[in-house]
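Aim 2, interim progress. The first record below pairs a target sequence with its structure tokens.
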Amino acid sequence: MPARTPLIPLLVLLTMGAFACAPADQTAEADTAAESMPEAAGADAPLFDSDAVATSLVTASANVREGDVVLISGNPRDQQLLEDLAVQVRRQGGFPMVELATDRMTRRMVVDVPEQYDTQAPTLGLKLAEVFDVIIVLETAEDPTLLADVAPERLAARAQAGAPVQEAMMRRNVRVLNLGNGMYPSAAAADAFGMPQPDLARLFWNAVNTDPALLDAAGQRVKQVLESGTELRITATNGTDVTVQVGNRPVLISDGAISPAEEERGGAATTVWLPAGEVFLTPVPGTASGTVVFDAFEFQGTPVEGLTLTFENGRLTSMNATAGLAPVQAAYDAASAGKDEFAVIDIGLNPNVTVTADSRFRSWVAAGIVSVGIGDNVWAGGSNSTPYGLFGHIAGATVTVDGNAVVENGRLAN
């Protein structure tokens, strides 16, 4: 799983524009993911009302107001939703710009561009970071192996070069909304999760439509326990057993909407992922000790079996797996300082998403799932801004804070 940093899409740093339709040579790519769109759901009724979803995302989730300049980025497969988002932004008195991103262009922007430009300062990105008030991103990738053959050093150099753009956005409290959250119903995602694409699409849109008030209420209960404790412990039957200190650390809730209070708070509070339903915090630096095991993990399209991370004094001391470790290790080796720091504890809240230990399906938002990782944690309110992150999910875990259960065997405690 890649870093979760909500960067401005790669392509907007390089090319910018609004398009009316997908290029002719992208028709096959758009068709591949058609089942994520309402007219191809294969059911009697559409999975979602595009205009209603656009209205909710623009008004409730991103809180677009008159005068806001809004970037809307997505794949040609989602042209109808992209158009409806633009219309809803304008209805609020905002100014939309639509960007299309495709696997073909993303790959060519890397493999067909000379390596000498990997470290080039992101002049355009920095200018755009000062222009946009809101960025709405629909996950675009179709092929998880798209850049698997690119040298990790090149990708790390590009991430490092682009880091100032993210920092500029955070300083301005740009409101960022990501629709997908690792489970956008593409054919590749369905294959990785081992489920039919229509089933993933139904799961996805049901999760997107979960009432933010319900998620906030669940989050507040978990937040109260996290804020009142000192030591947090995560255990699971797969061998996970890690402890961290959490005293006096800020706890954030992702309920699917950026409230006025969160906008005022700024920083990590102005980013939202949909489907929503998470409560998370960054631990006291230097305190994580123990072992974390991810049973179901995929990296650049390659399954990684039994990925095991060992920590001491808040830093990764070893990384092992029974199969598929090589690309993960290569990316880690190429990353910059801060890559080894324990990053975050994230607990899922969404009752419309469930996971089982014997399935390959994993999600940040599934009620009772626990997610942890290493590297960047600015997105979660931390201070480690390294342009690298590796995060995974633990199903069936138990989480206690000073002995009080927050999650018991993969279920949220009452």
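The second target in this work package is listed in the same format:
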Amino acid sequence: MDRFDVVVIGGGPGGYVAAIRAAQLKLRTALIERETVGGICLNWGCIPSKSLLRSAEILDLFHRAGEFGFRVDVQNADLEPAVIRSRQVVERTVEGVRFLLRKNGVEVFSGSGFLAAPDEVEIRPDGQRLLARNVVLATGCRPRQLPGMSIDGTRVMTSREALALSRTPASIVIIGGGPVGCEFAYLYRAYGATVTLVEQLSHLLPSEDEEISSALERSFKKRGITVATGARVIELMPQDGSVAAYIEERGERRTLQAERALVGIGVQGNSDDLGLESLGVRTEQSYVLVDGGMATNVPSIYAIGDLTGPPMLAHVASAQGVTAVETIAGLAPPPLIPERMPKATYCQPEVGSVGLTEAEARQRFTDVSVGRFPFRANGRAAAIGEPDGLVKVVCDGATDAILGVHMIGHGVTELIAEASLAIETGAPSPLLGRMVHAHPTLSEALKEAALAVHGGAINAWQLN
């Protein structure tokens, strides 16, 4: 049997990054992937969805062409070319990952990995076995079947089927107001569908700051998206040529009728069929339990990404993959702090955040200061015709330490990295406010929001 220093099971954004980093550290590395390297994120998630959202954004601009001095008559918006382009983007990106794995000397095996022993991995179905000094589990998660929501892949879809749908449905009900639901709501509305977005909790994007979530709801309603919050789906019933969604909203029951439904909630970790039970690897509700170095309770076995539970984000999986293999290599990387992981939602307006929400900060700290700056006061936002949005900085009032940054507006998913750096390095709000930002840029809104914590914003009247 071949012997490896590291065997990674699963080739998604956590697994392939872990494998490459392990190879960089001169560890002989194998990667086992049952489908295509890149995993769900690259093949049926992050990358194709962002490609489609770019098409929707361009379509939006065509509809607004008059604002910019153009006469454009958009008679038909065809989703199929956008889907074709998204698959081409995926193919190019997958080939890039294959190239990187090959150039770094990672040996890639096709199949499903199974732990026959703590140091022995069987590749199914062919039965080949690899000896492994260390194993990194990166098998991700999958949609969970929910009561009353029978997903047939046609009338009732998950995001995977939706990403391959080449014709815009006339109407669609989207179950779940998280990032997946909000992104598809924006996409289908841009292409002319009648969209109803249903969220059981009181706001869209319920893990985001409530002020930002409320702003997104207002924007969606202006776009003609029907938003039903505080609404529970009792049953989805496929019918002849349509779907009936039976919902309960604030104590009242009603029926929503649409051509299709998309279910964007409910996942479970892919911890089954890995041999974990026989080895005594601890799990909880389908997720593998790990410590700060991504190690399980069984020596030499590590787990990363969605398999370990929230936050279920591709960039978090990648960071965890690096942490795991650097721990294996004895480098003692600092543990990742979940609340410092940035979040991004790519509908329009975009939403980006990192750190504590205002409500969370007020629960933990006795003195909390908040600075806000509206995009309508930002010169670049006005120039590009995207004045809707807000940057919000939440600080410890006693120390000026930045506890959280929350943004909604055009391009904010690119701006959140600076906020992440500020929180990670412990930069206080006055320091961020003193940083010179190029003018005119959207990033100036973050500087101004930091200044606004102490009433020092220059280009807008204090909003606090």
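The chain has three domains: 2-143+268-338, 156-265, 349-452. This observation will shape the mutagenesis plan for the next reporting period.
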